[in-house]
Design a protein that fits this description.
By secondary structure, the chain is an alpha+beta fold. The protein is about 30% helix and about 15% strand. The chain contains 15 helices and 17 strands. Strands 8, 9, 10, 12, 13 and 14 form a six-stranded antiparallel sheet that branches. A five-stranded parallel sheet has the order 5-4-3-6-7, sandwiched between helices. It starts with about 40 loop residues before the first strand and ends with a strand.
Length: about 575
């Protein structure tokens, strides 16, 4: 076969060693080592003074600043969550330079559930709430000296057991607190469609908490059944595991982001269709100042956990919803990163959502799209063994004709990774998309293509795939007929691009295989394409009526110089 699309070396993979974050520091499994854990450091509510216990801190605040934390707690009858809100209210007022007076704090000041989100990261006072005297009890003064006597061994063991029980209680209490925060934020920023919830969202400040889901949407609204199926398909782990294990895909994004930390440092990044949050976390690790992760499926809960557990919740804000429907907490972003590509590139119609966000949020002239360009390729296919195994098989199954089982096999675009030996002619790029300039209208088209047939076997169909390029500036261009490998050879070793084609390692996109149904073609047409023949024709992409996330691909082909009435054509549905 022709070497028009050169093979490449295989791509190695590497893992991302992200640090994990936990609500409670330390190994809770090693109970016997409890006495060796670090001393808790409680930061004052009113200044930056640090204390070894919560009681000493609240006593200090009362004596020096007149802030009676326990008095306010008892006066308002606050429970555990109420105390958390009170802590965050006081810390926020102190942070904003506003006065804090015990007798002026009212119950209505603590109604806002956003106060459940800690103002001070890893606030030890919240962990130590149970160390404070219960309501109604007189608060003893903090101990100013430590006992010098060495307690007996049995007393130490008893104390250790008590501390273990308290630690388990705190762990459970914090699990409940964590769940309460998640449920509250879900309701506040999009999971609750009740009218009063919408009113609260309208009056609330821009979202600053974690929400997630998948956004692969055009400007046309989904019909209810299609919307439900589409977004629910991204709610389960399996599809995300498949994508993450696609090292060609994931390594490309990681390598571009990590190799270009100067581009991401201090920038605001928008991740559309963030899924598990992997691209958002890459951007945060590369130095982005703020990352907005937008998604619209139930994977949101897992993404929120991933962001928090890796200690990146102070950088990444996860927002649930379609990008067309949500309101971002910033007017513009510096970078849009998205893995929007579908089968045959445009299946699932997510690119229109990226273009919508580009036009609405990306800074003009300087804003960067990641990736920046994609090219689409077509080549003829001849693979008699594949056709026999997948098509002819049904005509003789243990002596029975089961042609009914072939329904759709010639009308649907099959997604498969074909061996390079099956490619029966030179490949041609029929469409290049510059994501900084292309429009939604550019995604429906009819393009010419040509190829030199190199096989001695019958033409069985056509293969479609795409290449993806990551440019470092929006001014950089990619020549249409360059393969990803040729472009990287020109750019140098730090450049990043990948292919979904048959000449390289398989990706989860594989290729779109369109087999010719010769029973619907003119008689003898299967024999007219010979080795060395020049093929020419057109390929058209269109959106099926009533299924705007689907894709119709129509190919017209014939020998060079043939009139249009002599050429053949067939349409396949990608779904």
């Amino acid at each position: 076969m022709a070497e028009a699309y050169p093979p490449s070396v295989s791509d190695g993979s590497s893992s991302d060693n992200s640090e994990a974050g936990n609500w409670l520091q330390g190994d809770q499994d090693d109970g016997d080592d409890f006495s060796e854990q670090e001393t808790v450091q409680v930061i004052s509510l009113m200044d930056d003074k640090v204390f070894d216990d919560a009681l000493a801190m609240v006593t200090y605040c009362k004596e020096k600043y007149g802030l009676d934390f326990l008095g306010v707690r008892d006066r308002l009858g606050l429970d555990f969550y109420g105390c958390i809100k009170l802590i965050n209210l006081i810390r926020q007022k102190v942070h904003d330079g506003k006065p804090v007076k015990s007798d002026e704090i009212k119950e209505s000041d603590l109604e806002d559930d956003s106060l459940l989100k800690p103002v001070l990261e890893d606030d030890a006072l919240i962990v130590c709430l149970d160390d404070l005297p219960p309501a109604g009890a007189a608060a003893p003064r903090a101990q100013e000296t430590k006992q010098k006597e060495t307690p007996a061994v049995d007393e130490l063991l008893q104390k250790n057991a008590q501390l273990q029980e308290e630690l388990e209680k705190l762990s459970q209490q914090f699990s409940n607190y964590r769940l309460a925060v998640q449920q509250t934020l879900d309701q506040r920023w999009g999971d609750d469609d009740k009218p009063e919830s919408s009113k609260a969202r309208a009056a609330a400040p821009a979202p600053t908490t974690n929400e997630t889901d998948e956004t692969k949407d055009g400007s046309k609204p989904d019909s209810p059944p299609e919307a439900t199926y589409y977004f629910e398909s991204y709610a389960h782990n399996d599809i995300h595991e498949t994508m993450l294990k696609d090292t060609i895909r994931t390594n490309a994004y990681r390598d571009f982001i990590y190799n270009n930390k100067a581009i991401f440092a201090g920038k605001t990044v928008l991740d559309i269709g963030c899924g598990t949050g992997i691209l958002s976390m890459f951007a945060a690790k590369a130095g982005a100042a703020k990352v907005l992760a937008v998604d619209n499926s139930a994977i949101i809960d897992k993404a929120r956990e991933n962001v928090f557990n890796n200690g990146l919740d102070n950088i990444i804000t996860c927002i649930r919803g379609k990008i067309e429907d949500v309101t971002l907490p910033v007017p513009t972003v510096d970078i849009i990163v998205s893995e929007w590509m579908g089968y045959c590139l445009l299946y699932e119609a997510m690119l229109p959502s990226v273009l919508y966000a580009r036009d609405k949020y990306l800074k003009p002239d300087t804003g960067l799209l990641v990736p920046s360009h994609t090219s689409m390729w077509i080549a003829p296919v001849a693979d008699e063994e594949y056709v026999t195994d997948n098509m002819s098989f049904w005509r003789d199954v243990y002596g029975f004709d089961m042609k009914a089982m072939q329904e759709g096999t010639y009308t649907n675009c099959r997604i498969d990774h074909m061996p390079d030996a099956a490619v029966a002619g030179s490949a041609q790029c029929f469409r290049m998309l510059d994501l900084h300039t292309c429009t939604k209208e550019d995604l429906v088209f009819n393009e010419k293509w040509s190829s030199t047939y190199t096989s001695k076997d019958k033409l069985d169909g056509f293969l479609v795939w795409f290449d993806t390029f990551f440019c470092e500036s929006r001014q950089e261009q990619v020549e249409k007929q360059l393969t990803w490998r040729q472009w990287m050879d020109i750019k140098g070793k730090e450049s990043v691009a990948f292919t979904t084609g048959p000449f390289d390692k398989e990706t989860h996109w594989r290729q779109g295989l369109m087999l010719i149904d010769y029973s619907k073609q003119p008689k003898g047409s299967g024999e007219k394409v010979k080795e060395g023949a020049k093929l020419e024709g057109e390929i058209a992409y269109a959106i099926p009526e009533g299924h705007h996330r689907g894709l119709n691909i129509k190919v017209t082909w014939g020998l060079e110089g043939e009139t249009e009435d002599k050429k053949q054509s067939q349409m396949w549905l990608c779904h």
